[in-house]
Amino acid sequence: MPKPVVAVVGRPNVGKSTFFNKIAGKRISIVEDQPGVTRDRIYTEVEWLNNQFTLIDTGGIEPKSDDIILSQMKRQAQVAIETADVIIFMVDGKEGLTASDQDVANMLRKTNKPVILVVNKIDAQHFTGNIYDFYQLGLGDPLAISSVNGLGLGDLLDEIVDRFSDDSGDDYEEDRIKVAVIGKPNVGKSSIINTILGEERVIVSDIAGTTRDAIDTPFTQGEDKYVFIDTAGIRRKSRINENVEKYSVIRSLTAIERAEVCLIVIDATEGVTEQDTKVAGYAHEQGKASIIVVNKWDAIEKETNTMNTYTKEIRNELSYMPYAPILFVSAKTKQRIPQILETIKFVSNQHALRVQTGVLNDIIGEAILLNQPPSDKGRRLKIYYGTQVAVRPPRFVFFINDRELTHFSYTRYLENKIRDAFGFEGTPIFIEYREKGGDE
């Protein structure tokens, strides 16, 4: 079940980033006493009372500003609002109600989404009178907090989780493979889906960001059922230095949450960009099966070993997901497009693969004989036994004598041995250690 998305919006300099950092427990957003500092949405995963959700920080909204940067910030905040399940509308309790607050409130009322009105900077008694002015916004009872001092944050988090819908989300059959098609705008995501479907089901244009919202397209081939989730870009309205692709990240994140398999589409003419690594990294962290699809391969001049060289570059840039198959395709010429469905089905099965405990421990035993576990100050790591505790993604628990003796390199070694024995192609696998009493 995908995690709800909570967006923090409001005009510049009301304390959104300070609040975000307080909830996240670390300084993620840049905090500076100057309007417009937070240029890009930033997200963090939050858990409160056993409820998990994604919190988005946004740049401030200046609805009537002609400033290019502020208009871009308004646009990215709108994307966050459209994507969010719950919206926190933050206002400044010291400054009081402003005309810009009224304009933002008018924008939010049109969304028909749960909006929590939060009055920030109420850190002194003489500011409490300002709270009542905000009833004029018509968004219900204002909730007073102080992000700097951490006052009222628990009540706000309670209010957030109370607003989450009980709707479980997708109504698709369990045997339908949900596939998120993710990547920067204009890399050919919609074209790939249309080519697979054999019909124009998704609008295709050369303008970056034609797909405004995530679009679900169910598809059946023989006995195999799929649903493709196409993710939106943002239309480029002006030539500025801001990286417009960043504005589509949150839609990609929510699509990844819903999916079982991710097609990470890369433009062959551009190679792996920073934005590609961010989106792919999130798919990896969320434990999704993944396929790297290099589109527009027809536009690349081929020489000896061109594909091998390109593969090495991708493996280097996306070093954390060596398990992901790479397909070089062209939606334009339909080159290797049929392999996409075959590979989706294959990695979906690998994602759900379960290994018997006895066979797993035979493999781990052999791995230990070939390469002894690490030791420290005369004490060696002992692995008593392992078991697989989950699928989609595959998770393993190893019972050991001392967690402090574990080392990343040995964990990677064990992971490679498991992959050599069982496959798990296209899916991350996760290994957890638990201490168990035993012989030192």
From TrEMBL:
<feature type="domain" description="EngA-type G">
    <location>
        <begin position="4"/>
        <end position="168"/>
    </location>
</feature>
<comment type="similarity">
    <text>Belongs to the TRAFAC class TrmE-Era-EngA-EngB-Septin-like GTPase superfamily. EngA (Der) GTPase family.</text>
</comment>
<dbReference type="InterPro" id="IPR032859">
    <property type="entry name" value="KH_dom-like"/>
</dbReference>
<dbReference type="InterPro" id="IPR031166">
    <property type="entry name" value="G_ENGA"/>
</dbReference>
<keyword id="KW-0690">Ribosome biogenesis</keyword>
<dbReference type="InterPro" id="IPR016484">
    <property type="entry name" value="GTPase_Der"/>
</dbReference>
<keyword id="KW-0547">Nucleotide-binding</keyword>
<feature type="binding site">
    <location>
        <begin position="230"/>
        <end position="234"/>
    </location>
    <ligand>
        <name>GTP 2</name>
    </ligand>
</feature>
<dbReference type="Pfam" id="PF01926">
    <property type="entry name" value="MMR_HSR1"/>
</dbReference>
<comment type="function">
    <text>GTPase that plays an essential role in the late steps of ribosome biogenesis.</text>
</comment>
<dbReference type="InterPro" id="IPR015946">
    <property type="entry name" value="KH_dom-like_a/b"/>
</dbReference>
<comment type="subunit">
    <text>Associates with the 50S ribosomal subunit.</text>
</comment>
<feature type="binding site">
    <location>
        <begin position="120"/>
        <end position="123"/>
    </location>
    <ligand>
        <name>GTP 1</name>
    </ligand>
</feature>
<dbReference type="InterPro" id="IPR027417">
    <property type="entry name" value="P-loop_NTPase"/>
</dbReference>
<dbReference type="GO" id="GO:0042254">
    <property type="term" value="P:ribosome biogenesis"/>
</dbReference>
<keyword id="KW-0677">Repeat</keyword>
<feature type="binding site">
    <location>
        <begin position="295"/>
        <end position="298"/>
    </location>
    <ligand>
        <name>GTP 2</name>
    </ligand>
</feature>
<dbReference type="GO" id="GO:0005525">
    <property type="term" value="F:GTP binding"/>
</dbReference>
<dbReference type="InterPro" id="IPR006073">
    <property type="entry name" value="GTP-bd"/>
</dbReference>
<dbReference type="Pfam" id="PF14714">
    <property type="entry name" value="KH_dom-like"/>
</dbReference>
<feature type="binding site">
    <location>
        <begin position="183"/>
        <end position="190"/>
    </location>
    <ligand>
        <name>GTP 2</name>
    </ligand>
</feature>
<keyword id="KW-0342">GTP-binding</keyword>
<feature type="binding site">
    <location>
        <begin position="10"/>
        <end position="17"/>
    </location>
    <ligand>
        <name>GTP 1</name>
    </ligand>
</feature>
<dbReference type="InterPro" id="IPR005225">
    <property type="entry name" value="Small_GTP-bd"/>
</dbReference>
<protein>
    <recommendedName>
        <fullName>GTPase Der</fullName>
    </recommendedName>
</protein>
<dbReference type="GO" id="GO:0043022">
    <property type="term" value="F:ribosome binding"/>
</dbReference>
<feature type="domain" description="EngA-type G">
    <location>
        <begin position="177"/>
        <end position="352"/>
    </location>
</feature>
<feature type="binding site">
    <location>
        <begin position="57"/>
        <end position="61"/>
    </location>
    <ligand>
        <name>GTP 1</name>
    </ligand>
</feature>
